[in-house]
Amino acid sequence: MDMKVIIPLIVGDMTERLVTERRLGTIEDCDERQMASQVAKCKTMSDINMLLCEYHFLFSDEKDRGRSVVSVDGTQEYVIRLLTERIETDADIIYDALKYG
Hints:
Shape: globular
Number of helices: 5
């Protein structure tokens, strides 16, 4: 699996979640650089699943919606959701460039 597209998406999403949790005051001790370094080491979906299990506390909103990123299926759904959002964003950028170019 080629991870060069998904790794930045995971880092961005998890960093955003980390900032939100810090603002809410629900976490204090979480090193953003260490987290990004751990994400960068992911080579397989299994690695991503282990990472999400370790940082499960960043995904309380997913649990509230009846989804769990810590299961294998949940991890796959999370990755697919990030990729889908990226594709939609890219499509919007391309459309705007063509329309307003």
